[in-house]
Amino acid sequence: MRIPVMDAKMHQLMPTTPTRAKLLLKNGQASPYWNTLGVFCIILKKEVEPSNQPIALDIDPGSKFEGWSVVSTQEAMLNGMSEAPHHIKKSLEVRRNMRRSRRFRNCWRRSARFHNRLRNKKSLPPSTHARWNAKLRILDQLRQIILISTFQLFQILIIYVL
Fold it and tell me: CA torsion 6→11→15→18, rounded to 10°?
């Protein structure tokens, strides 16, 4: 795995190898830093011109697991896998049963309201919505660590919504 690098003004630079990071720390050219996610980074003490390569994030979607890959023009910097949320259907069923029990527990019976539903409107199912939100959360955390310039996720999102 590559070590994230920041310049003196806390702007993200191209990640470096652990060997080079140790050398920079040993020579006093950089200082250690742990970001808000708890990831180890180094901060360079002198100002440098950013020479960042384009970094792309690609997602291999699946029903149970999703693969993540952060790739630069020369090599793959990070590969990972996440488990897709699968508890949504059970949670909605529990919520529906609790609502029904509240409706029948009272001494009066309120009829169901059908006119406030989303009829003839496009909406995502809750399980799909939760999966896409999980992808966006992971994407946001990766953007805090690595300067990503290209996303394959949004192309998939646009195709899915259309």
Answer: 10
